[in-house]
From TrEMBL, chains A, B:
<dbReference type="InterPro" id="IPR036676">
    <property type="entry name" value="PurM-like_C_sf"/>
</dbReference>
<dbReference type="GO" id="GO:0000287">
    <property type="term" value="F:magnesium ion binding"/>
</dbReference>
<feature type="binding site">
    <location>
        <position position="57"/>
    </location>
    <ligand>
        <name>substrate</name>
    </ligand>
</feature>
<dbReference type="GO" id="GO:0009030">
    <property type="term" value="F:thiamine-phosphate kinase activity"/>
</dbReference>
<dbReference type="InterPro" id="IPR036921">
    <property type="entry name" value="PurM-like_N_sf"/>
</dbReference>
<keyword id="KW-0808">Transferase</keyword>
<keyword id="KW-0067">ATP-binding</keyword>
<feature type="binding site">
    <location>
        <position position="225"/>
    </location>
    <ligand>
        <name>Mg(2+) 3</name>
    </ligand>
</feature>
<dbReference type="Pfam" id="PF02769">
    <property type="entry name" value="AIRS_C"/>
</dbReference>
<feature type="binding site">
    <location>
        <position position="35"/>
    </location>
    <ligand>
        <name>Mg(2+) 4</name>
    </ligand>
</feature>
<feature type="binding site">
    <location>
        <position position="79"/>
    </location>
    <ligand>
        <name>Mg(2+) 4</name>
    </ligand>
</feature>
<feature type="binding site">
    <location>
        <position position="79"/>
    </location>
    <ligand>
        <name>Mg(2+) 2</name>
    </ligand>
</feature>
<feature type="domain" description="PurM-like C-terminal">
    <location>
        <begin position="163"/>
        <end position="313"/>
    </location>
</feature>
<feature type="binding site">
    <location>
        <position position="35"/>
    </location>
    <ligand>
        <name>Mg(2+) 3</name>
    </ligand>
</feature>
<dbReference type="InterPro" id="IPR010918">
    <property type="entry name" value="PurM-like_C_dom"/>
</dbReference>
<protein>
    <recommendedName>
        <fullName>Thiamine-monophosphate kinase</fullName>
        <ecNumber>2.7.4.16</ecNumber>
    </recommendedName>
</protein>
<feature type="binding site">
    <location>
        <position position="50"/>
    </location>
    <ligand>
        <name>Mg(2+) 1</name>
    </ligand>
</feature>
Length: 331, 331
């Protein structure tokens, strides 16, 4: 490997993957290299799949190979966090850009890619159990990840809140979107102006510890990870039968969002609601769980309450979310 | 949906998926629509991922949408068969060609695609537990599938055979390769000349029942699914410490392979060894298990024996497999 600058065969890739990802783990009875891996059973399994595709979810012009390797896994882990669970393993489908595509990656770049992915996997004690490689027209990563509930055995779902519940968030809203837009406009230079926003977009940190804590608090009635922005994800979370009164003060908006929206003449509050790729956790809890929340998750932010009507309000004004559906065309 | 000829949003896709794939199943505690699905636990889990990509694994010019939907899932199920296990669920990562790509699919084509995939899923009682959609430059399917051992609890692996073991195959070797080459040369017309070969390439049938039967026979020492051809997969199966004496008579070569190789001046035996995408099961058993094999899997074909040296022979002649590595460049 040391003398190669390009990976010329499936075997080169497998060697590089073996270098970065241990092929033994207490949860793997049979590791990579057979038709399937065999894993120890779990009482129950939560499972999800995310695709992370060049020029759709990331651009090579401002994502380093390490950023890509990290974020591809991070967004999957975040879905496990949204269930209040702990990830226990993942598999990797990799579309490798061929030499004729503009996206070809050198061996050293692949090394960085796998290094960053394996560092995040190690942080969560996740075995890579297998996967598949295919040449293709662009770089693409399809990860399936699974996990299990924590101590309480509880799984936190959407649409399990009730009128009167307090809505809260763990994590920053709008920050990754400011990073995305700044990177699209300015390229890597954006980091100088909006370091927190750029870092939040390139290197999201899944909130597994927060999710597990939430699942241990009986008064917490549900959670999800906000991946499409609060405006789009809130209705999915509260469900069609409820509404919400949101209260978000300007002081709760992250600094880089304030700066970015000011620099660009945008409404900071609407920008925060719009968000996208926040990977913050949205939760609902009965008011009597607030003390436990303050004790165990002091960094949470209360953003409103669930109401019995289907109406939405923001800081006392009616809120119409239809204008916020920025995903009708894919961005 | 009835009035749409194109699927214009993620929601259109989700509706179509819900139409074809039930969202309740005895194994699903939480179905599609949350951050994760939740599945009932299993004593142990076998798991694998396969990518199925346009112009790498299939061409739209001779694969119908239904063929693609079927085969994408079939090749994954086959990996579970190779472990002697039963599939219990799958997730789907789908790269959807955008309107500007030459691969754009109409709503009716997506309907056929999902119809065929759901028919195969139903045949194996498999819930689709979730997945992800992304626009992209070509059609791509990344499936992760999992399963569990059958009655005996046994899982059949590679490299678990011993010298003296009988090598056998369930399924036809070389037939899908004849179909692939004929389709590449002749397009859909190939079906008239080589119907069995074309069908084997477009619509492989995973051999779950065979694999489960094999796992119940104690003298069967291992199995794998032959996806890259016998020449490439045999060394992976017997491992570096053993060799094999193969005996394959011309009479055992499928009719369409004989016709195709005769039409094209090719060596039918070498063509059969080369194969590719056979999705036959390769197994090893102690000689005293042959009676049980004959009883429970009468359609198996004995192809040789495992030897204590690392040498290989075919019908009494030394066999050098290095010339068979047709995958150094991806085809």
């Amino acid at each position: 490997m040391a003398h190669c600058t390009t990976l010329s065969s499936e075997n080169d890739f497998l060697q590089l993957i073996h270098k970065h990802f241990p092929n033994s783990h207490e949860r793997m009875l049979i590791g990579r290299g057979d038709d399937c891996a065999q894993l120890r059973g779990q009482d129950s399994i939560v499972m999800t799949t995310d695709i992370f595709l060049e020029n759709v979810h990331f651009r090579r012009s401002y994502f380093s190979p390490a950023d890509i390797g990290h974020k591809a896994l991070a967004v999957n882990i975040s879905d496990i966090a949204g269930m209040g669970c702990r990830p226990t393993g993942f598999s990797l489908g990799l579309i490798v850009p061929d030499e004729h595509s503009g996206s070809f990656m050198q061996a050293a770049e692949w090394d960085e890619f796998f290094q960053a992915m394996s560092a995040l996997a190690a942080e969560h004690n996740l075995p890579l159990t297998g996967g598949d490689l295919s040449l293709g027209p662009c770089l693409g990563i399809s990860i399936t990840i699974w996990g299990e509930p924590g101590e309480s055995g509880r799984v936190l779902t959407r649409q399990s809140c009730s009128p009167g519940d307090v809505l809260f968030v763990c994590g920053d809203l709008g920050l990754p979107r400011a990073g995305l837009l700044a990177l699209e406009e300015l390229g890597p230079e954006a980091r100088k102006l909006y370091p927190g926003a750029v870092n939040a977009h390139l290197r999201p940190l899944p909130r597994i510890a927060d999710g597990l804590q939430l699942a241990e608090i009986p008064g917490v009635h549900g959670a999800m990870d906000i991946s499409d922005g609060l405006a789009r994800d809130l209705p999915r979370f509260i469900g069609p039968a409820c509404g919400a009164d949101l209260n978000i003060s300007a002081g709760e908006i992250p600094k880089d969002v304030r700066t970015y929206t000011q620099d660009n003449g945008l409404n900071p509050l609407h920008f925060t609601l719009l968000g996208g790729e926040d990977y913050a956790l949205l939760g609902a809890a009965s008011p009597d769980a607030l003390d436990a929340l303050k004790t165990h998750l002091p960094h949470h932010t209360v953003i409103g309450t669930v109401t019995a009507t289907t109406a939405l309000s923001l800081n006392g004004e009616p809120l119409d979310l239809t204008g916020f559906d920025h995903f009708a065309t894919h961005e």
